[in-house]
Amino acid sequence: METILVVGYKHTDLGIFSDKDQRISIIKEAIRRDCIRFIEEGVKWFVFTGNLGFEYWTLEVLEELMAEGYELQTATIFPFANHGEHWNEVNQTKLAKFKSTNFVKYAYPHYQHPGQFKDYNRFLLENTEGVYLFYDNENETNLKYLYNLILTQVGYTVKGLNFDLLNEISEDFIKSE
């Protein structure tokens, strides 16, 4: 697998409203472990949709890994050209990071009808070989539509981050302090 889609919970889905929230460092530790493993297994491209939360934290970790000498490429395929235009100043800075990835495209100029999301999700899956997913179908969000589509894909690799793994990592953090 050379190209992996990165999707998961938004920060608001997790009740995280501050960049200083301690849970972020635990999540980023899990992301770091996973991303190093993906790179070692041959992943060259990490594809984002431009959402805050899991995707943004993964992008931050990948930037750190690139600074450490890991070779990888990042891409952002936004659903719409006006994605994030109403975000506050802090989040605009984060949006700028997504817009500065190695490859940036917009699926549509602007929203016209709900079918665009289904087509966009299909496009993402057709152009990646797997997904790095932080999602639990017991804690549903709008991500359920993409998640259900992922489940129908034959030969599509799903690598996940879940709350159980995060609990294990948080226990390791507590023991190391």
From TrEMBL:
Residues annotated as signal peptide: none
Could you tell me which InterPro entries the record lists for this protein?
YspA
Domain of life, per lineage:
Bacteria
Check the record and name the NCBIfam families matching this protein: PRK13660.1
PANTHER family, sorted:
UPF0398 PROTEIN SPR0331 (PTHR38440:SF1), UPF0398 PROTEIN YPSA (PTHR38440)
Protein name in the entry: DUF1273 family protein
Q: What is the lineage of its organism?
A: Bacteria, Bacillati, Bacillota, Bacilli, Lactobacillales
